[in-house]
Structures are given as C-alpha cells and as structure tokens.
Amino acid sequence: MAAEGGGGAGGRLPPRSASGLVLQTVEMHTGGEPLRIVPRLEAAEAAVAAGGLSLLSLRQEVAATQDHVRRALVHEPRGHAGMYGAVVVRGGAAAAGAHLAVLFLHGAGYSTMCGHAVLALGRFALDYGLVAAPSSPETAVRLRCPCGPVTAFVPWDGCRSGNPVRFHSVPAFAAAIDLAIDVPGHGKVVVDIGYGGTFYAFLSAEQLGLDVCSSKTRDLVNAASAVTEAVKKQFKLHHPESEDLAFLYGTILTDGKDTFSEEPTTNICVFADEQVDRSPTGSGVTARIALQYHKGLIQLNQTRTFRSSTTGSLFTGKAVQATKFGDYNAVVVEVSGEAFYTGTATFTVEEEDPLKYGFFFK
After folding, report:
1. CA 294 – CA 105 distance, rounded (Å)
2. In whole angstroms, how far apart are CA 140 and each of 136, 143, 190, 214, 337?
3. What residues have CB less than 8 Å from 346, skipping those under 6 apart?
4. In angstroms, rounded to a whole number, what is the distance separating the alpha carbons of residues 86 and 69?
C-alpha cells in the first residue's frame, strides 16, 4: 500500500496481521495546521499508470477504492478532528511535467487545493529528493494539485530547505459579490464568494453577532457552518474548467478589514465537516486577495498580512498578475508562510482491530 520501513525498538515494527497496512508518513505543520504526508501510495500510482487518469479523476478513484487509507491516518485514534493529510503521487502521468502531484485529505474527504500543504510540500520536495538539483538561494518546486498547477518557491542553502516558503496560485477570482443569503437563526447576511483553488464564502463575523478575535470558537464554527449550508442551497457555483471543482468548501469569517492596510487582518476558516483551520488558510488567503483586488481595495503587488484567530499565525498574500480564467477576470496570487517538520511516523493496521480504519468523533 505504501513504502514499508523500519520503526519501533531496534528498527522493528510492532507485531501485526500479515495482510495489515503499514503506512509511513512525514509530519509537518504550517502556521499550526498539521500536515501528515504520505510520501508514496502505490495503489494511486498504479491507478494512474493503468488508466491514464487526470488528477481530478484520481481523486475520485482514491475516494472510491482507497478511502480506508485516509480514514486510518486522519481519523482517530491515529489522527484527530483537525488532522489534514497529503498523498504524494509520483510518475509522469500524474505529475504531468511537475516535480510531484498531490491529493489532499481531510476529515470528510478530499480537497482540490490546500495552500498550507503546498507550503509544507515545497520544503518536503527539496529535503526528500523530489527535485533533482535544488538551486540556492531559492528553488522553484512545481506541483500538480487537483485544481491545477501551482509553483512553490523554497529557500535552499545547499543542504536543507528553509522558510519562508511562497507559492503562486492557480487563477483566483470573485465568483459573487454582495450576495444576500438567508441563514437560519441569523437572518439575511451579505457574503462574497471567492475562488482560490476551491470556493469559500466570506463575511465579517460581526454580521452574525460575533467577533472573530474574541468569540468562542464553537460559536464561530456553528455560525460559519450555517452560512456554508445556506449558500449551498441558495447559490449555484460554476467553475470554468470542471464541475468537479464547483463546490463550496467552507466559510471564512473575517474581522471585516478588507481595505488595504499594513496591519494584519484576522480570519477563521471553517471547512468540510466543521473542520477548523489552525493557519490563516492558504487557499482562503488566495480567494480573499482575489476578492479585494476585484473590489479595487488592493492593487497588484500590495502585500497584506493575514492572521489566524485560532493560533495567531501569519501568512502574507498579494496579487502578482492579472489574467483571464474562462469568463472571469482573475489574478495569480502569491501566498507566503512558514512550514516546519514535527517528525516521522510508521503506522500499522491490524486486520482484527474493529477500529482499524479509524473513527470520527466531534
């Protein structure tokens, strides 16, 4: 299923069923948001080689046939409600000229883009030899994500990668501006919807009677989730390239400070099944920059700083290039942040374990 290796005392694995999974991971975090990297999933690479699948199609194939891997690694007891993961997929058919392709894993399924993961994977690609000849002081790492090609720029001192890492996004755009939505329990609110590799709804927490910096996280999560469900029912999304990308991933509540300022603006991202991002959210920063640019609140190459309300960690973002994406006026956004290693792990699965593929507890 994945590359096997030594672990445990004296390099030995714990006793396990002969047919049980062994999954090795590299553990990282970006701005406090975890990333459990699976360096290789042979079943995914075999599916690409056999069927010539696109990465979006591979996402569906892995969800249908290998979802036990996601559940085993992301859910308890090996993971937790906030765990996030990435499967590195190697080989020309999947990577299509990039250094690596990647599938993103979360508690409820598979995302199409994840900025915090891209920042971490940029470092991983250099340190684990996925880029043949890194150059100093910075190396470009080309990734294929389900939403499209993304490039990370990673400091390299000749021996190891460093921080900060930055990436250039797929074209990002405003999908809807000042959209009135009826949210049960909150009444009418006005949201913007932006795309940064995946779609988010944005609004100030104040519209929901909350403060993104001081309200209880549970209250923010409940309110954001109610907005997400209301938008899904009342607004139909469109993506210029694929309907597989036309879904609302979550809602980002902000402090309302969208006009350009040197001061950080704070937000909290609630995505998938009420999962809370510990970082400022790379794809969310991408989408929010696209919205601010569309509204004329920022100009090209004006850098904004974004703060996570959960950990206080910071990302920066700026629009670096205007472009077209289908019928949308779009921008390429640069997001920068810091990613760090936290360890490595070897996980085993015993076939007789009734909870071998994890459980989800909220």
Report:
1. 30
2. 10, 10, 39, 39, 15
3. 5, 6, 7, 8, 13, 22, 23, 24, 25
4. 11
Phi then psi for residue 14, to 5 deg, are -60, 155
Structure tokens at 136: 């100093």
114 given a catalytic annotation: yes
Residue whose entry in the numeric block shows the structure tokens 């910071």: 314
**Peptide linkage before 240 cis (omega within 30 of 0):** no
Residue-wise pLDDT tens digits, 94-146: 667 899 999 999 999 999 999 999 999 999 999 999 999 999 999 999 999 99
Q: In what helix (H) or strand (E) does residue 225 lie, and over which residues does it extend?
A: helix 217-234
Question: Which residue matches tokens 């998938």?
Answer: 272
Peptide bond into 171 cis (omega under 30): no
Q: Residue for token digits 């996402």?
A: 59
Structure tokens at 96: 């299509």
Q: What is the mean pLDDT of residues 206-217?
A: 98
Give residue for tokens 């553990």.
27
Helix (H) or strand (E) holding 251: strand 248-254
Write down the pLDDT at residue 12.
80
Q: Report the alpha-carbon distance of residue 226 to residue 68 in Å, rounded.
A: 29
**pTM for this one?**
0.95
Active-site option among 114, 145, 147, 269: 114
pLDDT digits (tens, 9 = 90+) for 327-353: 999 999 999 999 999 999 999 999 999
| 84 touches 106 (CB < 8 A) | yes
